[in-house]
Amino acid sequence: MIQYVIRRFLQMIPILIGVTLLIFLLFTFFGEDPARVALGSHATPEKIAALRAKWGLEKPLVVQYLQFWREILTADFGRSFVSGERLSDMFKEGALVSLSVTLPPFVMGTVLNLCVAMLVAWYRGSFFDRFMSVIFTACMSVSYLVYILLLQYVLAYKFDLFEINGFIPGVKGLAFLFLPWLILMTVQFGPDVRLYRSILLEETKADYVRTARAKGLSEKKVMFKHVLKNAMIPVMTYTVVEVPFLVMGSFVLERYFSIPGIGDLLVSSVNTGDFPVIKGVTVMIAVAYSVFNLITDVLYAAVDPRVKLS
Amino acid sequence: MNKNKNMTSAEIVRGDTLWRRASRRLKASRLTMACFVIIAIYLVLAVLGYTKWIPDFQQQVGEKFMHPTLAKPALWLGTDVFGRSVLFKLFAGARTAITLGVLVTCISLPIGLCLGAVAGYFGGKIDGLVQWVYSVIVAVPYILLIIAITYILGKGMLAICIAMGIVGWVGLCRMTRAEFIKLREREFVLASRLLGASDGRLIFRHILPNVMHIAIVAASMEIMGAIKAEVILTYLGVGVQDGSSWGQMIADAPGELLNGIWWPTFGVSLTLFLIVFALNRVGDALRDALDPRLV
Fold this sequence. Notes:
heterodimer, A: mainly alpha, 13 helices, B: about 300 residues, mainly alpha, MetI-like fold, about 0% strand
């Protein structure tokens, strides 16, 4: 097990090299000159050159790239070009904000969607099941933006149930969070329930279900004690992989509601050419993505004795 | 076995191929057939959009923000802030969305199929390389890549097509690779290899046709994903710039809704919903019909 984990960590290195190279090349070769963006269009060439030198943009590319790796290994990405803030502080704040937006609906949504999927799987093959399948596909087919627009318009503007827009940190800000939470849960509903339903139905075809029925267990016992328990393995796999995206937040949602999370930070740093932020966020996301993939595989082997790590 | 229940005797004589079985299953659901019709209508609209048959959406057809009336087709869905017909804007959006969906699929489908096939068939170093490439692409946030590519190519249709095409092949590549790993050891492949078939012939002539059902389902999902993503990218300001996009209409919607102007939002939401729903439904139906394991 430990050997496996170590080997997987080593496998992350080539992927990280690829990610860093890709980001580095894309943004140093093709991105706008951050010094020019920071100083505006009326800046003199001397001023731009001075700022470029200060930010280390005049050094050879290889040196800049190696410096990038030193930053990764020491987990210190320096300061933002734009605000001059320390990046580690910006990330900590942003990640907390993003998590406060995405984590509660993720947890509540997963439980709720699993319950609904269980209900539909209980009546599998009936008219109710087929009707609900169409409903779930319909829920999946509404654009994210349309959900945001309509829910904000109807619930916050027409019925005045929620705050329309904005974000305040801390407990007072809860009022601002309810609407994004509701939107995220609505967006997740269709695809999640469909996925869980197909996982549950896949399990009901297994041999152990036939055995359980043959020995006379009630349908309730079969579904809740046997099928649900076994279905939790794939459900868990899909859920754990989602976690890094929670930290990242949702670009569109954070943009729309002016919530200062990681997604918003990334989009605005791309617009201002704030390369340190782009580098930092990308590396963070790539590492988080790989680590959570590894956690999924290890968990999978831990709960399912048939799976061997190799 | 009730497999032959709905077949005529002539069909039984001709043999029951995968495709014939699939088309019978598809025809069994009226909703699925309706979805095919919806997709066909959008395709026709998209093609007509390139001819003179559909009026130019930039043209002014009335006052600003006219309510929908049945007087003229141009006013069926009212007008926007410049007095342009909302209906014609939706048609132009359909042209943009369908063109984009088809182009993205034309880029990503061959890449995904070929790389998946090569990686799965040869294994070893080639497989390692392909896996490395897609692991890197998946680990970088999608939107960052797309924005970076719009820097290189400039904002607009071409940039998003290429960007989404480059990003979009990963899923299909993984599935194709897994299928190839399974199929390359099967008897029919070994038999042709013994008869002296080359690698290329084995890949394209013998194994690939057995993977086509995955590609077909992936294509319908890819088109749908591209249409949904284009709306969001245009909303974020990196998408289609000439105003002929549903994303632009959604970006205008919050301000219009607050002033009680509901028809552009209504029109664009419904148009977008119908095509995405139809593609979703058809994708599912195709998967059910073509994949023999899931019944």
